[in-house]
User: Fold this.
Amino acid sequence: MSGSTRPAAGPPLTSTGCTSCTLSVAGADGITAALPVDVALIGDTVSTVLAHLDGTPDRAVSASWHRWLSGHLRLLAPIAVEQAPRWDDPQRTALVKATAAAVNRALAAGLPADPAAAYVHVQELARECRGLLGLVLDRPGDGR
Assistant:
């Protein structure tokens, strides 16, 4: 790695934009809590997986990405579910809950043995991670 904070096959070990970020999260009950969510690191992980253009990575690379995404998703999914009712939209709340359940099922299934299937799996997890991060950062009534 020689001086780099980024491993050859994965997200950076430290985020250049934020090393100790907290995210203010408002629960359905209106109580706000600060959580240690490194938004930049999560974004870097997603970008690394989705920007890979050098063919199918070997399974070890996908396994590394899978570990990173699993941690991010296990953090983000419950936060998104907790926050969903604040939009006061039952259909949106149901969609967030269904997404979180699908993510949990995908994580429980684990990484496929086949390198191509493993790569598709981590790409799907990266897309879900990007979506859940957007939901967690979204604020009802702020025009988004």
Observations:
- The longest strand covers residues 23-26.
- The mean pLDDT is 82.
- The helical segments are 39-50, 59-83, 90-109, 115-137.
